[in-house]
Structures are given as structure tokens and as C-alpha cells.
Amino acid sequence: xxxxxxxxxxxxxxxxxxxxxxxxxxxxxxxxxxxxxxxxxxxxxxxxxxxxxxxxxxxxxxxxxxxxxxxxxxxxxxxxxxxxxxxxxxxxxxxxxxxxxxxxxxxxxxxxxxxxxxxxxxxxxxxxxxxxxxxxxxxxxxxxxxxxxxxxxxxx
Length: 156
Fold this sequence. Notes:
By secondary structure, this protein is mainly alpha-helical. It has helices at 3-27, 34-53, 68-88, 112-136, 146-151, and strands at residues 97-101, 107-111.
């Protein structure tokens, strides 16, 4: 499996895991608070990085105020945006450098490969925070381990 195929697989996992967390929040009756704020941030950041890759202006704040329903809609839309981008990306594009400004206004340059890797890791980090927060409040979080998704055939 080549690097690009691996990244596509990781984005498929990311989409599945995000949807699992949303379903878990809904099943527990959690519609507001820190878990929903973190999910909104995940979706906003995923959109922001795609916009940077496509040289488009930032369309959302880094920490938007989304409802759980808005998060659900954003998850569906992001899958429809990321999948074509990844399918149209070539292995040679992974080493291309993208110039951007971070949320502090600092100028940076990163490769496409590093950005794609960051997106998946950033989302996993915040899903972990959500799981910890849910456990601390007596809830059982969604089981979103990568290997679980593979074993169950949820991600190919």
C-alpha cells in the first residue's frame, strides 16, 4: 500500500470515527457542552485545512458554535469534500509545500503530506478528549479505535 492509499484509508477511518462519536453523544443525550464544542472544532479544523490545501479563504472560525445537528451536517459535507480531494491527489502532490497563516496570523509552510497527517491526528486527539470527558461524567464513549474499525470491516 502506498502512502496516498494509506492517507485515504486514514481519512475514511477519521470520517467513520467522527460519526461514531456523534452517534455516541446523541445516544447519551449530550447535545451541548464541551464534547459538542470539541466536535465543532474538529469539523472546523478539518474544513480549514482543506481550504488551505485548495488555496481558499477560511470560511469558519476555528471554534464555531455548532449544535449537534450542525456537527452532523458538517460531517456529511466534509466527507463529500475530502473524498474528491483525496481521490484527485497524486503521490507527487504529497511533497508540495503549502503556505498559509495559522490562527495567530503567523506564516508557515507545510507539505501536503504533513497537513493530511496532521488533520487525522488532530481529530483523534480531540476525540480522545471527548471520550475522557464522557467517562468523567458517567457515560460510555464511542469505541473508535482504528484497529477495531478494521477488524469489524467498518473501514477498508
